[in-house]
């Protein structure tokens, strides 16, 4: 069933089926996962059998499974992509997340709902409306949008036809999604084909137009991690209905913790909306309880930002390090030959063998200290023996501030069972002419009944007999159900053996699960508007990522006259924008002309001149488009990449879609 206008969907990532199952158990309304291929995380693929196993578990709770089918495709891959779409559809997947328009244009595709990936670069009203009108039922907005921009897009769409999805947590790509080609230009590994080399996390020297160094070895393209915990109500008001957690490469602990964190926040928001008279609802069934208190700071993060949701912010970059700096915990009081003595900020805190500590050296590089053994000296004072030799820990001295970026007690907690998700049921024990019946009605209105013959005998003690019946009927053990109310619809309290009650409950529970699965409705694919709506532009550059003839035909059908091939086709041999981003290095370093406007003594002296990024032999130019407030990272494709592509093209004829001969 498609997402309804009043439903709020928590969408969690899964590297594999086991993680996806735990995402559902920890409160996800939907899970997105890679299939056997063509996903934008090349190392996070899964078999059709695993997709089927995950879908079967998710559908028990009415949760949906999205399969990422969101790379751009070569002509020789189209048939394989079509077959994979059918395979995951037959396995029970509910949605395909796609980037390549070939998948909406091809004939003989399964009737599966299609969502437009964030890789389609959705940041304008016109683009969003077009994607709605060609048949996408949900669109993943660019992470860079403000609340006002989201609100404008929502107002332009039909909420019954197309829902808005937005990333609320996790790592941030500095580029507009789908608009980064640095990885392919330098290594041949295409971000649009799921194999990004993450050049944005590297350190760079920043040099101005006069050759002066602005920064030395700073990770100026590395963003802090996204965290919209404080903005959920505002995002709901702006029109977002699906809330996405990044992390298909992340481990089980991350998915458990972050899913649980947002499940609690959304449950609070939904409860508050019920009190206000304009209720929202969760998009799947059941309630989830946890054995731990969720805390986003416990997982790997580069510190947090809410990015551009509330406008441009000064502090969005993780420029000192792309690693996890952890949380402050104390400082060094003594450095020995094989051990350190520490004093903790909070005397109640405990260190564990295997904990990870870290600190910034004098060059502000993050240095890790893995604890081999930890000994308590007194409350708040510890001696730790690092795994690595102390002599190799640069700039470590008395007074060094320490953070903890791995807490083994937390890790062990999340390695165990850490949640319980249950669907509420009303339980009614009644009589039949020859025995008893047990009727279960769940919170979604599904009903199942089990009966058993039984020679009725009055209970010797009516009060105790009734209490015993209620107690036994309320035991749902390892099932997915929990009693909301137990009612005895009996002419009098009867003696019923526990074995008979257990059998009735077991049969009724199995029947109710079967009824829920039978009644589950997968969302259907939307029909495009007829006649075909025009695309907002009549010319497409390499930035449109058109890599096959089906995508080209799609855009031609929608009125586009000039269509250049994708960057991966190797037709753009000169300098081009290898990355387009809302992040601005000049702004972050207080060199933006807009920042200087009105400041006495600097009027007209600060200009948006290009800067250069240097990492070893790699050089990139930063150009600034101040009207839309965007930065372009400019460069050219390496000869080694072109040579490798030429060799591959000889081995696989027609591998690349082209619009014109390669020079």
Q: What key phrases describe this protein's structure?
A:
single chain; 663 residues; alpha/beta; TIM Barrel; Thrombin, subunit H; 8-stranded parallel barrel; 6-stranded antiparallel beta sheet; 27% strand; globular; disordered C terminus
Characterise the protein shown here.
- It is a single chain.
- By secondary structure, the chain is an alpha/beta fold.
- The chain folds into 4 domains: 7-172 and 224-284, TIM Barrel; 174-223 and 534-663, no CATH class; 323-415, Thrombin, subunit H (Beta Barrel), CATH 2.40.10.170; 422-519, no CATH class.
- It has 16 helices and 32 strands.
- The strands form 6 sheets. Strands 1-2-3-4-5-6-7-11 form an 8-stranded parallel barrel, surrounded by 6 helices. The protein has a 6-stranded antiparallel β-sheet with strand order 9-8-30-31-32-29, with no helix packed on it.
- β22 and β23 form a beta hairpin.
- α5 (125-133) runs parallel beside α6.
- The longest helix is centred in the middle third of the chain and has 25 residues, at 252-276.
- 42% of the residues are buried.
- Mean pLDDT is 94; it is low at 654-663.
Number of strands: 32
Structural class: alpha/beta
Model regions low in confidence, pLDDT < 50 over at least 5 residues: 654-663
Instruction: Kindly report how far apart the N and C termini lie.
Output: 51 Å
Q: Provide the CATH topology of the largest domain.
A: TIM Barrel
CATH homologous superfamily label of the largest domain: Aldolase class I
Read across the widest sheet, the strand sequence of neighbours is: 1-2-3-4-5-6-7-11
Shape: globular
Rg, nearest Å: 29 Å
- CATH C-level category of the largest domain: Alpha Beta
Q: Sheet with the most strands?
A: 8 strands, parallel, barrel
The share of residues in extended strands comes to 25-35%
The average pLDDT is: 94
Helix content: 25-40%
Number of domains: 4
């Amino acid at each position: 069933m498609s997402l309804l206008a009043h439903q709020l969907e928590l969408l969690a990532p899964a590297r594999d089926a086991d993680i996806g199952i735990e995402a559902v158990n920890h409160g996800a309304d939907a899970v997105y996962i890679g299939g056997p291929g063509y996903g934008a995380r090349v190392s996070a693929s899964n078999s059709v059998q695993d997709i089927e196993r995950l879908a079967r578990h998710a559908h028990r709770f009415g949760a949906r499974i999205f399969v990422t089918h969101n790379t751009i495709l070569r002509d020789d891959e189209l048939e394989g992509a079509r077959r994979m779409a059918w395979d995951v559809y037959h396995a029970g997947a509910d949605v395909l997340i796609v980037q390549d328009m070939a998948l909406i244009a091809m004939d003989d595709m399964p009737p599966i709902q299609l969502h437009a990936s964030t890789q389609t670069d959705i940041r304008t009203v016109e683009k969003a409306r077009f994607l709605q009108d060609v048949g996408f039922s949900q669109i993943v907005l660019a992470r860079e949008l403000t609340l006002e921009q989201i609100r404008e897009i929502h107002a332009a769409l039909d909420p019954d036809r197309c829902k808005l999805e937005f990333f609320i947590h996790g790592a941030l790509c500095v580029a507009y999604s789908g608009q980064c080609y640095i990885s392919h230009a330098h290594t041949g590994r295409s971000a649009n084909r799921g194999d990004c080399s993450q050049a944005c996390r590297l350190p760079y020297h920043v040099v101005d137009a006069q050759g002066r160094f602005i920064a030395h070895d700073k990770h100026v393209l590395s963003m802090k991690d996204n965290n919209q915990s404080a903005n959920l109500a505002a995002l709901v008001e702006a029109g977002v209905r699906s809330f996405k957690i990044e992390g298909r490469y992340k481990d089980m602990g991350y998915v458990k913790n972050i899913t649980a964190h947002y499940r609690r926040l959304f449950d609070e928001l939904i409860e508050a909306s019920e009190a206000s008279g304009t209720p929202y609802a969760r998009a799947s069934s059941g309630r989830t309880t946890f054995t731990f208190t969720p805390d986003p700071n416990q997982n790997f993060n580069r510190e947090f930002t809410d990015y551009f949701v509330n406008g441009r912010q000064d502090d969005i970059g993780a420029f000192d390090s792309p690693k996890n700096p952890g949380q402050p915990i104390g400082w060094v009081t003594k450095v020995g030959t094989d051990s350190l003595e520490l004093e903790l900020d909070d005397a109640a805190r405990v260190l564990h063998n295997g904990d990870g500590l870290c600190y910034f050296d004098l060059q502000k590089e993050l240095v890790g200290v893995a604890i081999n053994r930890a000994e308590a000296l007194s409350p708040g004072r510890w001696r730790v023996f690092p795994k690595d030799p102390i002599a190799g820990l640069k700039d470590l001295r008395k007074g060094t501030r320490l953070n903890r970026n791995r807490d083994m007690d937390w890790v062990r907690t999340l390695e165990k069972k850490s949640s319980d998700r249950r669907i509420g049921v009303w339980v009614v024990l009644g009589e039949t002419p020859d025995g008893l019946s047990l009727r279960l009605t769940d919170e979604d209105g599904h009903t199942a009944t089990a009966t058993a013959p039984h020679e009725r005998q009055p209970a010797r003690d009516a009060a105790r007999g009734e209490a015993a019946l209620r107690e036994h009927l309320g035991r749902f053990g390892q099932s997915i159900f929990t009693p909301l109310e137990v009612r005895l619809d009996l002419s009098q309290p009867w003696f019923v053996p526990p074995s008979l009650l257990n059998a009735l409950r077991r049969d009724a529970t199995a029947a109710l699960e079967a009824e829920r699965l039978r009644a589950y409705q997968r969302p259907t694919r939307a029909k495009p508007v007829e006649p075909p709506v025009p695309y907002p532009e009549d010319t497409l550059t390499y930035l449109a990522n058109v890599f096959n003839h089906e995508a080209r035909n799609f855009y031609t059908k929608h009125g586009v006259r000039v269509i250049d091939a994708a960057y991966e086709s190797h037709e753009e041999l000169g300098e081009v924008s290898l990355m387009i981003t809302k992040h601005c290095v000049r702004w972050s370093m207080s060199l933006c002309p807009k920042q200087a406007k009105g400041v006495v003594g600097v009027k007209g002296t600060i200009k948006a001149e290009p800067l250069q990024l240097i990492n070893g032999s790699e050089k990139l130019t930063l150009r600034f488009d101040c009207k839309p407030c965007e930065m372009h990272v400019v460069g050219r494709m390496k000869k080694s990449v072109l040579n490798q592509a030429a060799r591959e093209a000889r081995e696989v004829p027609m591998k690349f879609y082209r619009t014109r001969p390669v020079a």
